[in-house]
Amino acid sequence: QVQLVESGGGSAQAGGSLRLSCAVSGGFFSIKAMRWYRQAPGKQRELVAGIINGGSTNYADSVKGRFTISRDNAKNTVYLQMDSLKPEDTAVYYCNVLYWGPVGRESWGQGTPVTVSS
């Protein structure tokens, strides 16, 4: 019942910026946490950044200082601002939401690819 729609992925040059968005809709009481993951070809999916109900954030060491996660509660949307991009940031990025609801507890977005060239 909960759907996640991602946008903002694409191509960028090293040192450039992109902003990913993830809009949440459907049947839920409230959102518990929002997170961004990424998966590069041949590698496991890894947590990039997360934000919880109280507003606390956490980041992977590899993106700390370059990426910023934020949310707009009125729009039920989470963002990932990616600055100073590196080729190693190339991956498919997935939005993940934990929520309280009548059914379910977790949803994943379809993934949006990000390609960073040198």
Structural summary, described in words:
- This protein is an all-beta fold.
- Helices cover 0% and strands 59% of the residues.
- It is built from no helices and eleven strands.
- It has strands spanning 2-7, 10-13, 18-26, 30-39, 46-52, 57-59, 67-72, 77-82, 91-100, 106-108, 112-117.
- Strands 2, 4, 5, 6, 9, 10 and 11 form a seven-stranded mixed sheet that branches.
- A hairpin with a 4-residue loop joins β5 and β6 (57-59).
- The radius of gyration is 14 Å and the shape is globular.
- The model has no long low-confidence stretch (mean pLDDT 96).
Distance linking N and C termini: 40 Å
H-E order = EEEEEEEEEEE
Strand content: over 45%
The strand count comes to 11
> Which residue ranges are poorly predicted, with pLDDT under 50 across at least 5 consecutive positions?
none
Report mean pLDDT, rounded to a whole number.
96
Tally the helices: what do you get?
0
Brief rundown of the structure:
The chain is mainly beta.
Keywords summarizing the entry:
mainly beta, 59% strand, globular, 0% helix, 118 residues, four-stranded antiparallel β-sheet
Layout of strands and helices, then pairs:
Layout: E1 2-7, E2 10-13, E3 18-26, E4 30-39, E5 46-52, E6 57-59, E7 67-72, E8 77-82, E9 91-100, E10 106-108, E11 112-117
Parallel strand pairs: 2-11
Antiparallel strand pairs: 1-3, 3-8, 4-5, 4-9, 5-6, 7-8, 9-10, 9-11
